[in-house]
Design a protein that fits this description.
173 residues; 4 helices; 7 strands; binds coenzyme A; GNAT_dom; N-term/lysine_N-AcTrnsfr; cytoplasm; Acyl_CoA_acyltransferase; protein N-terminal-methionine acetyltransferase activity
Length: 173
Protein backbone atom coordinates (compact mmCIF):
# COMPACT_ATOMS: atom_id res chain seq x y z
CA UNK A 1 0.00 0.00 0.00
CA UNK A 2 1.48 3.43 -0.94
CA UNK A 3 2.49 5.61 1.98
CA UNK A 4 0.04 8.51 2.37
CA UNK A 5 1.53 11.98 2.92
CA UNK A 6 0.34 13.62 6.14
CA UNK A 7 -1.64 16.86 5.84
CA UNK A 8 0.24 19.93 7.13
CA UNK A 9 -0.35 20.71 10.81
CA UNK A 10 -1.39 24.27 10.05
CA UNK A 11 -3.23 24.90 6.80
CA UNK A 12 -2.71 28.60 6.10
CA UNK A 13 -4.81 30.29 3.43
CA UNK A 14 -5.68 33.84 2.43
CA UNK A 15 -9.20 34.96 1.51
CA UNK A 16 -10.94 38.04 0.20
CA UNK A 17 -12.46 40.74 2.40
CA UNK A 18 -16.09 41.28 1.41
CA UNK A 19 -19.11 43.08 2.92
CA UNK A 20 -20.05 39.71 4.43
CA UNK A 21 -16.87 39.17 6.42
CA UNK A 22 -15.33 42.60 6.95
CA UNK A 23 -16.39 42.51 10.61
CA UNK A 24 -13.86 39.72 11.03
CA UNK A 25 -11.18 42.06 9.70
CA UNK A 26 -12.34 44.67 12.21
CA UNK A 27 -12.21 42.10 14.97
CA UNK A 28 -8.66 40.96 14.13
CA UNK A 29 -7.36 44.52 13.81
CA UNK A 30 -8.97 45.64 17.06
CA UNK A 31 -7.26 42.80 18.95
CA UNK A 32 -3.88 42.99 17.22
CA UNK A 33 -3.25 46.75 16.97
CA UNK A 34 -3.29 49.42 19.68
CA UNK A 35 -4.56 51.91 17.09
CA UNK A 36 -8.34 52.09 16.57
CA UNK A 37 -9.19 52.27 12.88
CA UNK A 38 -12.33 54.22 12.00
CA UNK A 39 -15.23 53.33 9.70
CA UNK A 40 -13.63 55.25 6.84
CA UNK A 41 -10.59 52.95 7.02
CA UNK A 42 -12.84 49.88 6.72
CA UNK A 43 -14.91 51.39 3.90
CA UNK A 44 -11.71 52.11 2.00
CA UNK A 45 -10.27 48.61 2.35
CA UNK A 46 -13.46 46.81 1.34
CA UNK A 47 -13.34 44.98 -1.99
CA UNK A 48 -9.74 46.00 -2.62
CA UNK A 49 -8.94 42.63 -4.18
CA UNK A 50 -5.42 41.49 -3.49
CA UNK A 51 -4.58 44.56 -1.37
CA UNK A 52 -6.71 43.40 1.56
CA UNK A 53 -6.78 39.80 2.74
CA UNK A 54 -7.90 37.74 5.70
CA UNK A 55 -5.56 34.95 6.84
CA UNK A 56 -7.06 31.62 7.87
CA UNK A 57 -5.42 28.89 9.90
CA UNK A 58 -7.35 25.64 9.54
CA UNK A 59 -10.39 27.69 8.37
CA UNK A 60 -10.30 30.08 11.35
CA UNK A 61 -9.65 33.79 10.76
CA UNK A 62 -6.42 34.57 12.60
CA UNK A 63 -4.86 37.50 10.73
CA UNK A 64 -5.28 40.20 8.15
CA UNK A 65 -3.34 42.48 5.86
CA UNK A 66 -4.49 45.83 4.43
CA UNK A 67 -2.44 47.81 1.92
CA UNK A 68 -2.91 50.88 -0.23
CA UNK A 69 -1.06 52.40 -3.14
CA UNK A 70 0.65 55.77 -2.53
CA UNK A 71 2.28 58.15 -4.95
CA UNK A 72 5.04 60.19 -3.32
CA UNK A 73 6.65 62.58 -5.80
CA UNK A 74 7.52 60.39 -8.77
CA UNK A 75 7.58 57.26 -6.62
CA UNK A 76 4.83 54.63 -6.71
CA UNK A 77 4.81 52.90 -3.36
CA UNK A 78 2.85 50.15 -1.69
CA UNK A 79 1.98 51.09 1.90
CA UNK A 80 1.22 48.31 4.39
CA UNK A 81 -1.39 49.91 6.67
CA UNK A 82 -1.89 46.83 8.83
CA UNK A 83 -0.47 43.32 8.81
CA UNK A 84 -1.12 41.33 11.92
CA UNK A 85 -1.78 37.93 13.36
CA UNK A 86 -3.56 36.95 16.60
CA UNK A 87 -1.00 36.34 19.37
CA UNK A 88 -1.66 32.60 19.91
CA UNK A 89 -1.05 31.98 16.21
CA UNK A 90 2.27 33.80 15.90
CA UNK A 91 5.54 32.14 14.81
CA UNK A 92 3.61 29.67 12.66
CA UNK A 93 4.44 31.38 9.39
CA UNK A 94 1.11 33.23 9.02
CA UNK A 95 2.71 36.68 8.91
CA UNK A 96 5.14 35.36 6.29
CA UNK A 97 2.29 34.07 4.11
CA UNK A 98 0.66 37.53 4.21
CA UNK A 99 3.90 39.38 3.50
CA UNK A 100 4.87 36.98 0.68
CA UNK A 101 1.46 37.67 -0.82
CA UNK A 102 2.22 41.42 -0.76
CA UNK A 103 5.68 40.85 -2.27
CA UNK A 104 4.13 38.70 -5.02
CA UNK A 105 1.51 41.37 -5.73
CA UNK A 106 4.26 43.97 -6.11
CA UNK A 107 6.31 41.67 -8.34
CA UNK A 108 3.32 40.85 -10.57
CA UNK A 109 2.47 44.54 -10.88
CA UNK A 110 6.04 45.35 -11.90
CA UNK A 111 5.66 49.09 -11.39
CA UNK A 112 6.40 49.79 -7.73
CA UNK A 113 9.46 51.61 -6.42
CA UNK A 114 9.17 50.42 -2.83
CA UNK A 115 7.05 48.93 -0.07
CA UNK A 116 6.85 50.78 3.24
CA UNK A 117 5.12 50.86 6.61
CA UNK A 118 5.33 52.33 10.09
CA UNK A 119 5.85 50.49 13.37
CA UNK A 120 6.11 51.70 16.96
CA UNK A 121 9.79 52.02 17.85
CA UNK A 122 9.46 49.32 20.55
CA UNK A 123 7.85 46.73 18.26
CA UNK A 124 10.90 44.47 18.13
CA UNK A 125 9.07 41.42 16.80
CA UNK A 126 7.67 43.30 13.80
CA UNK A 127 11.05 44.94 13.14
CA UNK A 128 12.76 41.51 13.16
CA UNK A 129 10.00 40.08 11.00
CA UNK A 130 10.31 42.77 8.33
CA UNK A 131 14.13 42.77 8.41
CA UNK A 132 14.00 39.06 7.58
CA UNK A 133 12.27 40.05 4.33
CA UNK A 134 14.80 42.73 3.42
CA UNK A 135 13.13 45.80 4.94
CA UNK A 136 15.32 48.46 6.54
CA UNK A 137 14.61 51.32 8.94
CA UNK A 138 14.84 54.42 6.78
CA UNK A 139 13.38 57.06 9.10
CA UNK A 140 12.17 57.59 12.66
CA UNK A 141 9.33 60.01 13.27
CA UNK A 142 8.69 61.51 16.69
CA UNK A 143 5.06 61.65 17.88
CA UNK A 144 3.82 59.79 14.81
CA UNK A 145 1.00 58.17 16.81
CA UNK A 146 -1.51 60.34 18.64
CA UNK A 147 -3.02 58.20 21.38
CA UNK A 148 -0.51 55.41 22.04
CA UNK A 149 2.85 55.10 23.78
CA UNK A 150 5.54 55.12 22.60
CA UNK A 151 4.29 57.63 20.05
CA UNK A 152 7.43 57.46 17.92
CA UNK A 153 7.49 55.30 14.79
CA UNK A 154 10.11 53.78 12.56
CA UNK A 155 9.49 53.81 8.86
CA UNK A 156 10.54 50.50 7.36
CA UNK A 157 11.09 50.22 3.65
CA UNK A 158 12.03 47.64 1.08
CA UNK A 159 13.32 49.06 -2.17
CA UNK A 160 11.93 47.36 -5.24
CA UNK A 161 13.77 49.42 -7.80
CA UNK A 162 16.49 52.00 -7.21
CA UNK A 163 15.59 55.69 -7.15
CA UNK A 164 14.98 57.06 -10.62
CA UNK A 165 17.91 59.22 -11.61
CA UNK A 166 17.17 62.87 -12.38
CA UNK A 167 19.70 62.56 -15.15
CA UNK A 168 18.56 59.96 -17.66
CA UNK A 169 21.02 60.60 -20.50
CA UNK A 170 23.75 58.60 -18.77
CA UNK A 171 26.13 61.51 -18.33
CA UNK A 172 27.66 62.49 -14.97
CA UNK A 173 28.27 65.95 -13.61
C1 LIG B 1 4.90 40.87 13.12
C2 LIG B 1 3.92 39.73 12.98
C3 LIG B 1 2.91 40.04 11.89
C4 LIG B 1 4.68 38.44 12.61
O1 LIG B 1 3.74 37.43 12.34
P1 LIG B 1 4.08 35.88 12.56
O2 LIG B 1 2.97 35.09 11.95
O3 LIG B 1 4.39 35.61 13.97
O4 LIG B 1 5.41 35.76 11.68
P2 LIG B 1 6.11 34.45 11.11
O5 LIG B 1 5.74 33.25 11.95
O6 LIG B 1 5.82 34.34 9.67
O7 LIG B 1 7.64 34.81 11.35
C5 LIG B 1 8.59 34.87 10.29
C6 LIG B 1 9.94 35.26 10.86
O8 LIG B 1 9.91 36.59 11.36
C7 LIG B 1 10.78 36.70 12.50
N1 LIG B 1 9.99 36.95 13.70
C8 LIG B 1 8.65 36.93 13.83
N2 LIG B 1 8.30 37.22 15.09
C9 LIG B 1 9.44 37.42 15.78
C10 LIG B 1 9.73 37.74 17.15
N3 LIG B 1 8.75 37.89 18.06
N4 LIG B 1 11.02 37.88 17.51
C11 LIG B 1 12.02 37.71 16.61
N5 LIG B 1 11.82 37.39 15.30
C12 LIG B 1 10.53 37.26 14.90
C13 LIG B 1 11.45 35.32 12.63
O9 LIG B 1 12.63 35.35 11.84
C14 LIG B 1 10.41 34.40 12.01
O10 LIG B 1 10.93 33.19 11.53
P3 LIG B 1 11.08 31.93 12.55
O11 LIG B 1 9.80 31.78 13.30
O12 LIG B 1 11.36 30.79 11.61
O13 LIG B 1 12.23 32.28 13.45
C15 LIG B 1 3.19 39.43 14.34
O14 LIG B 1 4.14 39.42 15.39
C16 LIG B 1 2.10 40.44 14.68
O15 LIG B 1 0.96 40.28 14.26
N6 LIG B 1 2.43 41.48 15.45
C17 LIG B 1 1.45 42.49 15.85
C18 LIG B 1 1.04 43.37 14.68
C19 LIG B 1 2.20 44.18 14.17
O16 LIG B 1 3.00 44.70 14.93
N7 LIG B 1 2.32 44.27 12.83
C20 LIG B 1 3.40 45.02 12.20
C21 LIG B 1 3.02 46.40 11.79
S1 LIG B 1 2.01 46.40 10.34
Amino acid sequence: MPEQSKPPLHRIELGAVTPHNFRQLKCVNSVVFPVIYNDKFYQNVLEKGELTKLAYCNDIVVGAVCCRIDTVGNQRKLYIMTLGCLAPYRRLGIGSVMLKHVLQYVENDGNFDSIYLHVQVNNDSAIEFYKKFGFQIVDTREKYYKRIEPADAHELQKTIRPLKSENTNGSHE
